[in-house]
Amino acid sequence: MRLPLAEFGDSLFGEEKMADLEDKPYDPEREAWTRRRFLKAAGLVAAGAAAVPILEACGGGGGGGGGALTTGKAPVPRQGASIRLLQWVHFVPAADTEFIRQCTEFGTKYGVTVAVERITADQLIAKTAADVESNSGPDIIQMQYGWPHLYDAACVDVSNEVGILKSKLGAVASVNDAFCKVNGVYKAIPYTIVPNAFTYRTDLLSQAGVTSWPKTWTEFAAAAAKMKAANLQPFAQTDGHAYGDSLTMWNPVLWSHGATEVKADGKTVTINSKETRAAIAWAQNAVKGGFVVHPEWLDPDNNQAYHANRISATLNGASIYIREKVEFHHYDSVSDNGVVPAGPKGLYTMNLIFNHAVMKWSPEKETAKALIMYLMDKTNYLKYTDIAGGYNAGPFAAFDNDPVWTKDPKMKAFHDVVATGKWPGWPATPSKQTAQSQQQYIVADMFAKAIANGDTESAVKEAESRLQAIFSRPG
Amino acid sequence: MSTATRRVSGAGVSRPLHLRLIEREAPMGYILLLPTLLVLGTFLAWPFLFGLWLSVTSAELSDPGHFIGFGNYNFEFKIDHPFWTSFWNTFLYTGVTTVFKFTLGLSMALLLNQIFPLQRFVRAALLLPWIIPTVLSTLAWKWMFDPTFSVVNWVAVHLHLVAAPGPNWFGGTSTAMAALMIVNTWRGMPFYGIAFLAGLQTIPLDLYEAARVDGANRWQQFLHITLPLLRPVLLVVLLLSTILTFADFQVPFVLTNGAPYNSTHVLATWAYQWGVPGGAIGLGASVSLVLFPVLSIIIAGVLVLLRRPE
After folding, report:
1. In which domain, by residue range, is A220 found?
2. pLDDT digits (tens, 9 = 90+) for A4-39
3. Chain B residues with CB-CB distance to A under 8 A?
4. Considering chain A, what is the average pLDDT of its residues?
5. How many other C-beta atoms lie within 10 A of the C-beta of residue A78?
């Protein structure tokens, strides 16, 4: 029986069930079908089946045209199974320790051997691509951004598991949802959001006469100019090929000026617009004023520069602030965090998004799914976010009020940038093409080129030609 | 085949086929070649043919795609703008670094061919850049060129060679390309040096003595004895190095990964960009195969030079 996923997942367990399950550790046996649940679900299935044609006739249908497999039955781990999970090396080392602890705990509880393999985020894509092409490798791979769209054929349908999680934890954050759902079928289980906000030095900003964190890009440029005038450490950011910091900076600048790469249809390239030119003009003026851009910086470089007292503000995940607070203690008391400024067309942000996919070659798919469900259990997940100190935000509604956000008031900015988050290629739905555009840093390159040589027209036209190439590629 | 064997065969006594094959030189030669052919076929011919096939398909990671003829090549040459940047960068990168590696490698070999204290130690030490894994040494260079903590800039500034804070090596298009070339030259030079040194040591000393008796100076000895006798080694090293530099991936990938704004992409990194992060493996294969005809011409040219009588 095929059903629209969201409706099935949400209605199967309902409010009563949600209350029942909340705050209890994940237990596959508890998730097994009872007679009462079966009757309840069967009724809903019948109602759903009857409703589908009506919804479709009315242009609805929820998840949309996919063949999502939903049974409502939680995956059960197989005793004696071995699972390999591949993911990045966390910027907050304690978070990885906790993640591995939870995996080991799962292994001990269910008699499963779990191995967590970690490589740096920039190498994760090469390893993933090699695994996909050779049709072998880890059972679970952490998917960054829109990878489920790039590797959809290699990822198992996990609609059933996402449905169960939705019933327990509420709605999925829109960006995770867009990345995980490929043609209406969930190809990855929402895992986490790494919110990106500005971390800045309150002492240096005060010396320059900047009393509060800028709320708009215009104020940001003015504050950067004040830093330069006072001969203090600058506001600085990469406009190079950094998989995180470059994308999370320049896409929001573009969007908040009303510009986009492509229309919502995912085909019509729209980068050549007056809004794009306005965004570039802002960047050029900000750099002339005192904002420093580094085309050569990769993701760790702004962290190092901040810790080395070379810069006064930069856009990043919370790792700079957290490591100052927990590890370095050089500038923790004079550091604070601010939301990404808004542009003339509103406030837009972009965050790093990671999700877990179960790979089709895995001989232990059910155990792999069960492990992810265990990690996503509310109690376990909150332990993880607590130790990560706010570097990670949960991808379900139940995590909106994660205590980690109130534990340290300075972390509020990282909470606030989640709701305004979009994905590269927005407003088009994530696709192979939007993923390719992101991987080729077309937006960041456009800004970098226009800032470096001042030739806006050439930069915009090159970006347009590269986007058109991607969206017109043979295939 | 011996006379005795022929007599036996002629008498009508048939010998088993495998014995007859082993005893004949030609079939035995082919049998002995088989393992090598198998290895070459598996690890060279098959990947090459598979790459050739991929380049004419719409293959993506986890999707074998379908035959699209020259669609990928057409896309590269006519639509894919950074392809041409990568194409010219590859030639520039190979051309400049080969000239430097050749000149410096030959100088290094001539110096190492002299007798001096700690000669063996120096020879071994100069091989280090070539021995250290490329990724490791390139990462070390990346730190040395780092804009915030550059030791290169620190030294240059303290020696008053440049004004503080020194060049932003990876921030500008020309400085980033220069950094790539410096690292490639540093890494490739010892290969030239050691190969040339081996060649130099095969040249009989009598020739130099005779030349000296005839009144030839050092430059004339180098021009008329060293260079002609070293020619086969020079050409082979040049050929190997050119092929390796054309296909170099590690140094450009680790050092700049195309930044700033795709100005330092070479064909190898651009092929990777399409094939791996972009998932378009067919297109990536076609980008990398563009080098095939270019390298074929270079190889043919060097082989002709090698065969030409001195």
Report:
1. 197-349+423-471
2. 333 333 333 333 333 444 445 555 544 444 444 444
3. 58, 60-63, 65, 68, 71-72, 74-75, 79-82, 146-149, 168-173, 176, 256-262, 273-281, 283
4. 87
5. 17
